[in-house]
Amino acid sequence: MKDADVAERMHTAALVEPRGELRRDRRPRRREAAKIEADAQKAKTLAARIRWHAARDEARSGSYLPKGGEPGPAQLRTPGRLKLPKHQDTTATLSGHYPFLAKAGLGSAGVFVGQDLYSGGSFVYDPWVLYQRGLITAPNVVLAGIVGSGKSSLAKSLYTRSLPFDRRVYVPGDPKGEHTAVAEAVGGKAIILGHGLRNRLNPLDEGHRAASVSDVEWSAQLAARRRDLIGALAETVLDRPLSPLEHTAIDLALADAVRSAEVPILPMVVDRILSPNPEDDEGRLAADGRLVGHALSLDPPVELRL
Asked: C or N: which end of the chain has fewer Cβ atoms within 10 Å?
């Protein structure tokens, strides 16, 4: 017997045999057992074949439409492939083909803006709430659109309806004057700045001080910030870099103005640049700082603390 035949065959052995059975009796008994097993397998195969023939006859006796459909007019299709011209349109027009589609929205927490165009429900938007929920990465908003599309109305609706949610609103500029009336209507204040007006912003104001900053560090930061700001203003007006002597005149005038006033303003620095302290002046400060002093000269201000 080949090795392949041995590997594919399954060998069995009788666990219970008659005691003292002879070989001549064992062989006939095994042949009878094999015959019984073969007859059972044949009967099983025959039953499966009968079921298969019955299913095939049932399938052949049924009537089904052909793959190409019924012939003639009942086919309900053209002989060739259907071809339609391409069509392009806006979403406002094409949305009529799918009238039952609607977005899930952003939730109910936040500021009511208006009615959703597709679902008909309320549209609520609050960038801080959405940022906390992780739906957006930053609470920044950009309003874009053509003239008259409602950008200003949307902006004013957003910030006025945010006030009951303890949001503080600052409008850095109002060139058209449309936000001033809104601010006054909700109890706010409009700060009007411009040429010839009495209101001024004090560029030398201390501003906000962090609680972790010491007095020494705060004095150094404040002096450096004021010095850089005055120098930048002078260079902008003169349209040239300042010389070292002009920087010295600004530093001495600023230090003297800080010593003489708790909150210095720019005209104090200008006066000390044009008329320096005799103790600090060596005869050249007035001449060296003359152009800087005239460049920084402004109308008498009314200090406005924010």
From this structure: N
HEC states along 221-246? HHHHHHHHHHHHHHHHHHCCCCCHHH
Spell out the SS3 assignment of 177-223: CHHHHHHHHCCCCCCCCCCCCCEEECCCCCCCCCCCCCHHHHHHHHH
Q: How confident is the model at residue 298 (pLDDT cuts 50, 70, 90)?
A: low
- Indicate whether 213 and 247 sit together in one domain: yes
- Give the residue from 118, 151, 185 where a domain finishes: 185
Contact predicate 249/292, CB 8 Å: yes
Instruction: Give, in order, the Cα–Cα distances in Å from 281 to each of 253, 255, 291.
Output: 10, 13, 16
Is 0.85 surpassed by the pTM of this model? no
Query: Can you tell me the distance from the alpha carbon of 253 to that of 289, in angstroms, rounded to the nearest whole number?
Result: 10
- Residue 274 has which token pair? 């044009």
pLDDT digits (tens, 9 = 90+) for 48-59: 999 999 988 887
Average pLDDT over residues 204-217: 84
Is pLDDT above 80 for 294?
A: no
Of 300, 306, 301, 267, which is closest to residue 199 (Cα–Cα)? Answer: 301
| Average pLDDT of every residue of the chain | 78
Angle (deg, nearest 10), helices 244-260 and 266-274 = 120
On whether both 154 and 107 belong to a single domain, the answer is yes
- What's the distance, CA 26 to chain centroid? 86
Give the max Cα distance, the chain: 144
C-alpha 240/C-alpha 8 separation (Å) is 100
Number of domains observed in the structure of the chain: 2
Q: Comparing C-alpha atoms, which of 231, 224, 199 is closest to residue 303?
A: 199
